[in-house]
Amino acid sequence: MPSPAPTILPPDAAALARAAALLRAGELVGLPTETVYGLAANALDPGAVAKIFEAKKRPFFDPLIVHVPGLAEAEALAASWPGAARKLAEAFWPGPLTLVLPKRPVVPDLVTSGLPRVALRAPAHPAAQALLRACGLPLAAPSANRFGRISPTTARAVAEELGDAVPLILDGGPCAVGLESTLVAFPEEGGLPLLLRAGGLPREEIEALIGPVLLGSRDTAEGEAAAAPGQLPSHYAPRTPLRRIATAAEIPAARRAATALLAFGPLGVEEFAGFAAIENLSPASDLREAAARFFTLLRTLDHSGAEEIAALPVPETGLGLALNDRLRRAAHR
Ligand code: TXA
Ligand code: MG
């Protein structure tokens, strides 16, 4: 684990001014958002953006989301706005939605990994909004974890992931949504929008507004792999191997002392028996609660000392689409 510890401050006026000064000087700041914590840098300064890749040990082929206060600032970075994209921004920004649109030349190629499109998001967390306005810069910010690992949903988890690679982390409390933003791309004029990553805004809410979006993922087709470079089969991975199971009965009594269980929904007494550790995403089967707790509980079980994490399934609707996506990638070795 990296050390020494970075400075963690509540986002009061003094801390926001200090964070804005760091960002203007080309340094990194740990940023609370409603989805997950980000590792932010001035998106218009390639030298600052390069520090993000270094700190995360992230490959340069994986582009970054640029954060802005709202639609007006986004328009300065994206060259064209299909009607459906504008509709989505008007309805869901600020919020857990990222739009991938043709970039303007002002966006450095390092931010988009040389792709002609830029990913844009207006975060809703008040500290993120306050920092964006205080520094007056668009902020490139990936999730503030080491590449391929569990996304942080608390300031402490950011410090655990990045140590002194980030000088200052603003502590905005635990993330309310808990899953990364939903990524929607508009590949060509008139073509169907692509859902590149299921996330904190359910697909159903998007389709209710703009009609069908195609599911696109790294796993399905070569062409789509180029469109969603960061959606690697292995991602969000705990250090402890994770296995997806259909029922707790799949784990025999003899294995339970070495197994930590990640559950969802009400569990019977027998299903609980004998496990090294158990965390329940939502005993009441509430997907919002499950999403908000997901990465924190995954981290807790990763630290439990068990040899293996066994994860029960989540229904494939609403936020369950994104939860199952994260579980699949966490299980992939
Ligand atoms: O909720 C979120 O989106 C968080 C918070 C901090 O805003 N950010 C986040 O960033 O999850 P990151 O870097 O961990 O994931 C961004 C995803 C990656 O899969 C990346 O490949 C994809 O977005 N992406 C970024 N720019 C892209 C682009 N121009 N075209 C296609 N995919 C892009
Ligand atoms: Mg990430």
What percentage of the residues does DSSP assign to strands (E)?
15-25%
Number of strands: 15
Overall number of structural domains: 2
The parts where pLDDT drops under 50 for at least 5 residues are 218-227
Broad structural category: alpha/beta
Strands ordered across the widest β-sheet: 1-8-2-3-7-4-6-5-9-10-11
Number of continuous helical runs: 13
Q: Can you tell me the CATH topology of the largest domain?
A: DHBP synthase
3D shape: globular
Order of helices and strands: EHEEHEHHEHEHEHEEEHEHEHEHEHEH
Tell me the distance between the termini. Answer: 22 Å
**CATH arch. level architecture of the largest domain:** Alpha-Beta Complex
Q: Provide the residue-averaged pLDDT.
A: 92
How are the elements arranged and paired?
Layout: E1 7-9, H1 13-24, E2 29-31, E3 38-42, H2 46-56, E4 65-67, H3 71-75, H4 83-92, E5 97-102, H5 109-112, E6 117-121, H6 126-135, E7 139-140, H7 155-162, E8 168-170, E9 182-185, E10 194-197, H8 203-210, E11 214-215, H9 222-227, E12 242-244, H10 253-256, E13 259-263, H11 269-272, E14 277-280, H12 287-302, E15 308-311, H13 320-331
Parallel strand pairs: 1-8, 2-8, 4-6, 5-9, 10-11, 12-15, 13-14, 13-15
Antiparallel strand pairs: 2-3, 3-7, 4-7, 5-6, 9-10
The structure holds threonylcarbamoyladenylate and magnesium ion.
The site of magnesium ion has 3 residues, from loops.
